[in-house]
């Protein structure tokens, strides 16, 4: 989901004044300035004020912030849960119950002007692939890796297969608002070499 004009949602903690805009100068008051009532784009405080407004809203709705990453939140209701990740004005939602995710989307849209971008295929350059029948979710940075290889003139390098003893199948365990990764069973990974 995308928050439209996210930075305009922030409320200012201090008095901030700005000059009148060039084409909107009030006649007879040319030397006066404007006192801002809300955050606007271009202020150093805008992103922080937007985050504080968003944080307050989701926490009041029952989300818990993940301590290891203050832009990740989790909300639980019995056996249902939703993970919410905020990156500037983009929100990624993931959950185990479609109706619960839709209810969260509806709540978000009632609090902020939002655009539902549909099911995520890419987020921050990471490709998301799903296989619902097998209950699998895959994340890939192949496109990014190819760009890096091309940038360093290594696009023709040869991959090798190497087993990493400490890497296992990843299972996620949810305990309160903390997310921990548990490991089991070895897996193969490719390393890029020259």
Main sheet: strands, sense, barrel = 4 strands, antiparallel
**Average pLDDT value?**
77
* Radius of gyration based on Cα positions: 23 Å
DSSP strand tally: 13
Class from helix and strand fractions: alpha+beta
What overall geometry do the principal axes of the alpha carbons give? Answer: extended
Pattern of helices and strands? EEEHEEEEHEEEEHEE
The strands making up the biggest β-sheet line up spatially as 4-5-6-7
Number of domains: 2
- Beta-strand portion reads 35-45%
What does this structure look like?
The longest helix is centred in the first third of the chain and has 15 residues, at 46-60. This protein starts with a strand and ends with a strand. A hairpin with a 2-residue loop joins strand 9 and strand 10 (126-131). The strands form 5 sheets. It has a 4-stranded antiparallel beta sheet. It is of the alpha+beta class. It folds into 2 domains: 2-118, no CATH class; 141-194, no CATH class. Helices cover 20% and strands 43% of the residues. It is extended and about 75 Å long.
Question: What is the topology?
Answer:
Elements: E1 2-3, E2 17-19, E3 33-35, H1 46-60, E4 64-66, E5 69-77, E6 80-87, E7 90-95, H2 98-111, E8 114-115, E9 122-123, E10 126-131, E11 136-140, H3 142-151, E12 158-175, E13 178-193
Antiparallel strand pairs: 1-8, 2-3, 4-5, 5-6, 6-7, 9-10, 10-11, 12-13
């Amino acid at each position: 989901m995308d928050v439209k004009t996210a930075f305009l949602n922030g409320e200012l903690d201090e008095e901030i004044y700005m000059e009148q805009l060039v084409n909107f100068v009030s006649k007879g008051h040319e030397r006066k300035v404007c006192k801002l009532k809300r955050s606007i784009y271009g202020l150093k405080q805008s992103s922080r004020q937007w985050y504080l407004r968003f944080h307050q809203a989701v926490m009041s709705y029952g989300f818990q912030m993940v301590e290891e990453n203050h832009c990740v939140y989790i909300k639980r209701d019995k056996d249902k849960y939703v993970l919410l990740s905020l990156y500037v004005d983009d929100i990624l939602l993931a959950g185990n119950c479609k109706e619960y995710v839709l209810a969260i989307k509806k709540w978000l849209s009632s609090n902020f002007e939002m655009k539902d971008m549909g099911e995520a295929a890419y987020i921050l350059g990471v490709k998301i692939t799903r296989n619902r029948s097998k209950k699998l979710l895959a994340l890939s940075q192949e496109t990014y890796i190819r760009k890096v290889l091309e940038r360093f003139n290594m696009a023709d390098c040869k991959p090798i297969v190497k087993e990493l003893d400490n890497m296992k199948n990843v299972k996620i365990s949810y305990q309160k608002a903390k997310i921990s990764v548990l490991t089991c069973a070895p897996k193969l990974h490719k390393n890029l070499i020259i």
